[in-house]
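[step 3/7] fold_predict: job queued, chain A
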Amino acid sequence: MFKRFVDANSTDYAIDIFERKNNLGAGMPYSLEGANDEHITNVSGNEIPELVTSIAEWIKTVHPDTLRHFHIDPHDFNDYKVLPRLLFGQYLTSQFNLLKQKAAKAGIATHIHFNSPVTDIIDHPQRGKVAVEIAGQERFEYDHVIVCTGHNWPVHHEGKVSGYFDSPYPPSKLAFHVNHPVAIKGSSLTAIDAIRTLTRYNGSFRRNDEGLLSYHVADDSSGFKLVMHSRNGMLPAVRFHLEDSHLGKETVLSKEEVDKQREANDGFLSLDYVFEKNFKDHLIDKEPEFYARIKDMKMEAFVELMMDLRERLDPFQLLRAEYAEAEKSIKRKESVYWKEMLGVLSFAMNYPAKYFSAEDMQRLQKVLMPLISIVIAFAPQSSVEQLLALHAAGVLEMVSVGDDSHIEVNPEGGIVYHYTDENGASHADAYQTFVDAVGQPHLSFQELPYEGLLAGKTVSPARLLFQDPLQGEKALENGDEHVERDQKGNYYLKVSGISINDHFQALDEYNALNERIYVMAVPYIGGFNPDYSGLDFCEAASATIIKSILQTTVYSRVAGRL
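[step 4/7] structure written:
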């Protein structure tokens, strides 16, 4: 967002940045809040948005001691390689510093407030101002506020129940010896983060003369074992070569196309249309044989076909096969095109998702997103090697737990994992240590941490209208807690977070936009943006926000919390 203001090259505004920590740029995933030395990125330099300098250029400026610490050879480095996350965080911080220099040179007034947690935001519509409260004390007023708070991991039992971790972050809290099985909820990249830390402190990886990786448990951790619990019993797919390293950013449906489709569909954008346009159509030329196989399939049939193979194979057997496929893809610089197109589809449908009907959003959540979340996770090769080595050593296993699984917290410590297996047998497995690693949750409207916005009804809960009222009525009668009926008899699906428009402006309970408040804090807009992709999301959202601000305001004082 700051880069957008700097690139606009205007001195008609002043920018205040409030940062909770004492540095800017790295954010949670690439700082000690989200990574240790053992954690690596799942994207390479060529896949991230343009900042100031490329990673390949920046690497040449890094102190040799830092490069040695992270085992980086600057002479054997290019923008196609992944990085240790903490090193990537240093890169992002350096880019922010370069942007500050560019802003100063251009005469853009920038005021940075470190160690300044934003504790409340209060809108004053009568005066056209927004107040920002810092640490429950000072208040500053602005014409526009952009909320960029990033990740948020709510704490429920951690610190109260021994052995219970609400997330693997910061990973330093998992840096301990353990002599018993550990339960991990989830099998995504977040779960891999937990696994990389726990295995580092309870054993070691070794590579033999043939290059094969193996894992050896430490003597004082002989009982150490990791048990992943996944609703679908699947592991993420492996990172492969992308033909379009930015995943089809030009394929996002235009406003005109969205409007045209909505006009022909009772005001809704059809998920089936987006699936055809942003996925299947791209396969016609690139993978004609694959396209011929799926061209007449509806979304549900396609997902069933793709999931069937994954469900029939042992997850580690499939992981080994996909690792070999990905190695070939990277070596030959040839994409696994249908997987890449799922990434394109995910990116393309994110922004107009607010125009889906409630029925289509339910289909998206229940049918398509489980496949997308697996395929476009892009687990790095080194992480996959470690997972395979751990499984071969008998240290890592996967348990498929189904939708009815639940965690029983033991007040004395640990948990009991209740689930029904694939054969219908009930289980109640006790664990002394449990890590919730399902990833960033989509947080609810009530969890927005700014009481002023809630109390002033400046924001409203996100919800989607049922296209067929009978479907909504049926869902409500069946006790679906996510469905509600308004006074006019309309049925809505309640989704997570707050309502925003196409410009990421907050919407109130009357669906009126707020010209002063923009929200790109992804945990709080997950209902209207069901899938978001890190820096790619930030690049697209910030482009929309800067355009809106510069169109509506000539002289602004802008506050952003980056």
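[step 5/7] annotate
The chain has three domains: 2-152+501-561, 164-234+381-436, 249-375.
The chain has a mean pLDDT of 92.
exit 0
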